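Sequence and structure are kept together here, with a separate record for every protein. An example record follows, reproduced without changes.
>
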Amino acid sequence: MKKFNVPTREEVGSINQEIFDKLNKALGFVPNLYAAIAYSENGLDRYLNYQNAKTTLSNKEKEAVNLIVSQVNNCIYCQSAHTVIGKMNGFSDEQILDIRRGKATDSKLNSLVALAADITKNRGKASEETVNEFFNQGYTNENLVDLILQVSDKTAMNYLHNLTKVSVDFPLAPSLELATS
């Protein structure tokens, strides 16, 4: 397979160069997976607008979804990035590992994680029991739509990394097999 190199600022178009500059200012670097999207002249702007769109899910809920979807899709890049972002949103190391294992100690968050995992594993077909528990925990139809959109966001990034294998520029997330329970 052809090696997929991470493009530099000079190798992308002017629209993406501006986005690279904004990312550098905000984050201190351009994450390699974002840079890979910049091979598409409009892809990075389109993706960032999608990723940053308003949602009914809290940042913590979004990170829980990102973690479990990335685990199900076996994407080490996104597991690593969202371990860092999960900590920034208040999760402990153990909570992050638990979410990646498909569970959360809070029953409402647990229902979200379970449904996100079920949707991802079964390509949008989730069990009636998992869907019912999600609604029983107080989530709404609007939350369900926003969950599906969050799963699709993360699945796209998981697939991009799993195909391109660009280098991970975040501290590597621990393997669940090696992490203590």
The domain at 59-162 is CATH 1.20.1290.10 (AhpD-like).
